[in-house]
Amino acid sequence: WVSNGTIVSTTLLLLLQHTHSRRAEKRNYKEIIQSLNQLVNIAKDNKRNILDVVFKSLDGNKKEINAQKMGSFLKNLQNLIDSIAESAQSQEKYEFSVLSTYHGSFGIRLATPVEDQKQLNLLQGSETSLEEFIQLIQAGSESINEDAALKEELNHLSQKSIKSFKSFTGSLVELNSNVSFKLGVLDKKEDINAEMSYVRAANILEIIREKEELEKEVIDVYGKLVLAGTGKNKKERKFIFTEAADESQSYDGVISEDLLIELEYKIEAGDYYHAKIEKKTLVNTVSNSEEVKYRLCELRKIQE
User: Fold this and answer.
1) CB 129 within 8 Å of CB 112
2) Cα–Cα distance for residue pair 57/64, rounded to 1 Å
């Protein structure tokens, strides 16, 4: 009986050891596959930083994406990362290339240019701007009721970057999709992940718009109204206003429709006024350059 028990115990022990060994082999195999699929390893093999972007349409049955809207999203993504690099005083532009697309789910793999040995030190700039981009997305992914992290990130961005972020989230809303990002950079051991839902992107747009309203600059100035158009559309409501104290300082833009209604479309050019002019800085989506626009919102004639 003892002998048989010993045989049974030994057999069970061997079976347990074999099962444990098979599980370990399976786990090790899985870990190896996961390691091979890590973007950081692909990035190192290719000497380029890689960003995976995967879209999940709100319409689960939809298997295609509008080409024009996708093009707008990619352009705004590139502009946002460029503006982050500029605010970090980087002189380099890191133009993305589409490396591949996904099967099964709609996704694209983007990559920075292949760098030779002499340029590898410059590539660190793209790593920094890409990581800051992911941090911005991560902050934006917080609960709608917890905007502190996002607002903190926005406070550290330049005006140009904020406006680029606004265009980026706007293009995401246009796609009617949730989106996830996975970043592999050369100097990291692990991939960096972030995601943004359609609902959160729409909420972020409102947060940025509220911030813009609070940060609009209003110029209070005395001077001469050189030109005043009183038409119904913007092209016919142009104005030019020069400061009395410095005639070389002038403002040109559009007269507020509310102001024209208030003054019953009667404005005399050539006279001196106390004016309030709204200054707004925008980002040109074509050139990604800043442009300033002025709107004449208040006008009081100076009595002689």
Assistant:
1) no
2) 9
- pLDDT at 169 > cutoff 70: yes
Residue 33 contacts residue 161 (beta carbons within 8 Å): no
Count of domains in the chain?
Answer: 3
Residue 122 pLDDT class (50, 70, 90 cuts): very low
Structural domain boundaries enclosing 12: 1-37
160 and 237 in a common domain? no
Cβ-contact 54, 179 below 8 angstroms: yes
Residues 80, 32 within the same domain: no
Whole-model pTM: value is 0.64
Burial 79-90 (b: 16+ CB within 10 A, else e): bbbbbbbbbeeb
Q: What DSSP state is assigned to residue 113? A: P
Put the strands of the sheet holding 192-196 in their side by side order.
97-101, 106-111, 50-57, 177-184, 192-196
Q: Are 181 and 296 part of one and the same domain? A: no
**Rounded to an integer, what distance in angstroms lies between the CA atom of residue 282 and that of residue 164?**
9
Whose tokens are 């992911």? That residue is 134
Torsion of CA 74, 88, 162, 136, to 10 degrees: 70
158 and 179 assigned to the same domain:
yes
The pair of structure tokens assigned to 136 is: 């911005």
Q: What is the DSSP secondary structure assignment for residue 259, as one 8-state letter?
A: H
If pLDDT is split at 50, 70 and 90, which confidence band does 187 have? confident
Q: Cα 150–84–38 angle (5° rounding)?
A: 80
Say whether both 280 and 175 belong to one domain: no
Q: 10 Å Cβ neighbour count for 277?
A: 21
Q: What is the CATH number of the domain that holds 245?
A: 2.40.50
d(CA 52, CA 36): 15
- Which amino acid does the sequence have at 8? V
Shared domain for 99 and 141, answered yes or no, is yes
